[in-house]
Amino acid sequence: MNTRETRSERERYIEKFAIPVGVVMLAGWAVATFAFEGPGWVHLFLTLGVFCVIWGVVARGTPGSREEGPAKRKRGDRV
């Protein structure tokens, strides 16, 4: 098994599901906090939801950054 392929599959999975999962957690936190006066552990949904949204945004990166990287230098090239 090639770890690079596994990693890219994992990255695609994170890119695809991290933001929606985070938004669902934040919505659940909002409902539990403001509608039902949820207990303190409900705020864990806030923490995890924000974490998932930030992770999803960072995992996506900038558009086209993977294809348009700087030209790779060869071993003998000088700067």
Descriptive overview:
The protein has helices at 3-34, 43-60. Helix content is 63%, strand content 0%. The chain has a domain at 11-60. The longest helix is centred in the N-terminal third of the chain and has 32 residues, at 3-34. Helix 1 (3-34) packs antiparallel against helix 2. The protein contains two helices and no strands. By secondary structure, it is an all-alpha fold. It is elongated.
In short:
By secondary structure, this protein is mostly helical.
User: What percent of the residues sit in helical stretches (DSSP H or I)?
Assistant: 55-70%
- Secondary-structure-based class equals mainly alpha
Span of the ends, CA to CA: 37 Å
User: What overall form do the CA principal axes indicate?
Assistant: elongated
Instruction: Describe the main β-sheet briefly.
Output: none
Q: Please, what is the average pLDDT? A: 81
Secondary-structure element pattern, one letter each: HH
Features:
single chain, mainly alpha, 79 residues, 63% helix
Question: Helices, strands, pairings?
Answer:
Blueprint: H1 3-34, H2 43-60
